Structure formats: C-alpha cells, structure tokens
Amino acid sequence: MIFGNLKVARLAYRLYFRRATFMTRILCAWRLLKNRLFGIRAPISVMIGVTYRCQCGCVYCGMNLYQVDAEVELSTEEIKTVIEQARELGVVEITLFGGEPLLRDDLDEIVAFASSASMLPSIDTNGLLLTPERVESLMNARLSAVKVSMDSPEAGEHDRMRGVAGCFDQAVSGIRCCVERGLPCVISTYASRENIRSGDLRRVIELGKSLGVDAVRIIDTTLSGCLLAEKHKKLSPEDRRELASMLEPGLVFLENLASARALTHPVCSAVARRYIYVSPNGDVQPCCFVPLSAGNVREDPLNTILARLWNSPVMSYDPGRCLMNNHKFRGHYLPRIEAADSLPVALEE
Ligand SMILES: C[S@@+](CC[C@H](N)C(=O)[O-])C[C@H]1O[C@@H](n2cnc3c(N)ncnc32)[C@H](O)[C@@H]1O
Ligand code: SF4
Ligand code: SF4
C-alpha cells in the first residue's frame, strides 16, 4: 500500500506540478494549506466547459444533452474572470473541457492566463486538433497536462464510436507528439460492459503503455447524455471486479480516484466537494454530466453560487456513488431533466 501511494504521489506530481513554475507550486501549496488551516471549504478543481461544439458524435457521449450554441459561450474575458474567482476561493486546478476545447481559438490565451494566475491548467481532448504546432503553443502557454480520449485499441472501432474517420490516427499522433515533447499525457477511456468483456479495455491500457503515456484514466460508464435512459449499461459487480484487476497505482486509475483503494472506496468528486463545473454558457453544475444548475456566473460571483450548490440537497447523496448512476438521485431528478426543453435545469424548483 505504501509503495502504491508513493506511485500515486509521483503521478500527481508529474501531472500537476512538473511543468509549473516554482512560484506556482508554492502558491498552490499555500492555497491548499490556508483553506485547511482556516477550515475553509473550497473545491480543489474547477472544470470549465469552454464550448459544447465538437467534431465527433460519440455513441455514448454524456455531454450531448446540452444545446450547442457558440453565440452564448462565455467570452475569453468571462472565462478569465471565472479563473480569478476560482483562485480567490483557493482552487488550484483548472480543467478546460468540452465539447472539444481545441476548437476555441483563444484556448492558448486561457491556458496562459490560468498558469500565470498560479493555477494548474489541463485539457481534455478528442485529439483531432492536437497537431505538433498546437502541442508547442500549449506548452508555451504552460499547460500542465493533456488527456486524450481513446475508446478502442482498433482504429476502425474507435472511429466508428467517435463518428469521425481518422480520429484514432490523429489522437495517436497527438499522443506521440506530447510524449516526445515532454508534455504530461494521459489516455482517457471509459469502462463499459462491452469493452471489459471483450478485453478491449485491457488492450487500450496496453496501447497507452506502448505509447509511453504517463497514465491511463478510466471513467465509469455514466448514465447521462446519450446514455441517460440506458440503465442496463451500468457495470455489473463482476465487471467491476474485472475492472479492479486492471488498475495499477500511479499508472491506471479510475477518474478522480487516483488511489490504490479506488474501487473499494469510490468517491464522487462532486458530492465530496472536490470539484465543480462551469458550463460553456456559465451555468455552475455539480458535474459536467449532471444537468442541474445552481446559478450562472454571468449573474452571480462563483462563491455565491458555490454556497447555493453546496447547501443544496444534492450534496446529501451517497458520496460513494456517481450521482447519475444512483437510483435515488435519478428517481428524484430524472423526471424533471427528461421533461425539460433545455438543460441544465435549475437545481431546485
Ligand atoms: C466529455 S469528453 C470532453 C473532451 C473531449 N471532447 C474528449 O472526447 O476527450 C471527456 C471524456 O469523457 C468521456 N465520456 C463522455 N461521455 C461519457 C459517459 N457517458 N460515460 C463515461 N465517460 C464519458 C469521454 O470518453 C472523454 O474521455
Ligand atoms: S465524448 Fe468528447 S469528442 Fe465525443 S462527442 Fe462527447 S465531447 Fe465530443
Ligand atoms: S456525478 Fe460524481 S461520480 Fe458521476 S461523473 Fe460526476 S463527479 Fe464523477
């Protein structure tokens, strides 16, 4: 266990701090310490959805509930304000998310702003635009890490699932470029009944190792977006045991659960108050896959909305379960979510 935790700590260092300046490391450590010393409750991480736009149409995408409208996306300046407000709360990590974040032309500027504000910025990408030039410019902006999605070890199957020919090859060449240039790189994949049982998930892990990535992150099938009504897609206890056997401390981990105890002690980062999500339109949600909004950063500052969210009944659900996969949560919120004309819906009516 001790060795496992050391490996996890080494991975956390590589992904978050390796590319940060000395001053950013000190200031991040100070923000975390200050909140602990003074008993201030704040998230460690804020995920900012910079756009809902995307070139892919993944068959399982948990984000396709939302209406794509580039006209109402937060502007560069509005995103910078969110980052500043997050820093004032004591947040250290900023994840730039989508849709596909590389579709935003101002992404480098946002990354540079976050890193110069002593935050640790990372991105999640489908890899289609992860060209050597983009890797270079993101590194110049001092990106901490990149997570590239990989759904299958086979090019044809990956492209089928993503709905874009050539997606696999682009993602692989983007990963190779990050590895060669020394930009910390993680393969992001999701665990499904199909890919656990077919052995494809294991093969994605092997592919990641052969490409030399820093880690492989596995996300549990989340019943949101395309999968909102697909209850039968939840992993069975046997699938979970098989999944557990694939985890390797410091190398293969379950989302947000980079500890060796991930499967026996799972934690929903939203309910555990470790992170919040700001949507491309400014809505503040418990998580990108949970279509409930506690308010909008265009109307209220982040700390006011955070207090509203964290004092709401949503935070009283079992932190050991994904909200969207929890039948109690679904029983309470799904009728309203399914009946809504547009999402997210207000947290409480
Ligand atoms: C929503 S995408 C956003 C970033 C980018 N478009 C991409 O595909 O990497 C981030 C990650 O969430 C995963 N994901 C999407 N929908 C999911 C779902 N319903 N369950 C589990 N993981 C999901 C994707 O595989 C991807 O690795
Ligand atoms: S998973 Fe990512 S790439 Fe696929 S449709 Fe969703 S946002 Fe786009
Ligand atoms: S609701 Fe919790 S467990 Fe589910 S995807 Fe969001 S943060 Fe992860």
Mean pLDDT: 94
State the strand order across the main sheet.
7-6-5-4-3-2-1-8-9
* Low-confidence segments: none
Which band does the percent of strand residues land in?
5-15%
Helix-strand category: alpha/beta
Shape: globular
Bound molecules: S-adenosylmethionine, iron/sulfur cluster
For the termini, the CA-CA separation is: 46 Å
Helix content: 25-40%
Largest sheet: 9 strands, mixed
Order of helices and strands: HHEHEHEHEHHEHHEHEEEEHHE
Instruction: State the total count of DSSP E strands.
Output: 11
Oligomer: single chain
With helices defined by DSSP (H or I, 4 residues minimum), what is the helix count? 12
The value of Rg in angstroms is: 19 Å
Written account of the structure:
The structure is a single chain. The mean pLDDT is 94. The termini are far apart. The protein is of the alpha/beta class. The strands form 2 sheets. The protein has a 9-stranded mixed β-sheet with strand order 7-6-5-4-3-2-1-8-9. Strands 10-11 form a two-stranded parallel ribbon. Helix content is 39%, strand content 13%. The chain is built from 12 helices and 11 strands. Helix 3 runs parallel beside helix 4. Bound molecules: S-adenosylmethionine and iron/sulfur cluster (SF4) (2 copies). The site of S-adenosylmethionine has 20 residues, from strand 3 and strand 5.
Give a quick summary of the entry.
The chain is an alpha/beta fold and 349 residues long. 39% of the residues lie in helices and 13% in strands. The chain has helices at residues 2-17, 22-37, 76-89, 107-116, 132-140, 155-162, 167-181, 193-198, 200-211, 237-244, 302-310, 327-339; strands at 45-49, 93-97, 120-125, 145-149, 185-191, 215-220, 252-254, 275-278, 284-285, 292-293, 345-346.
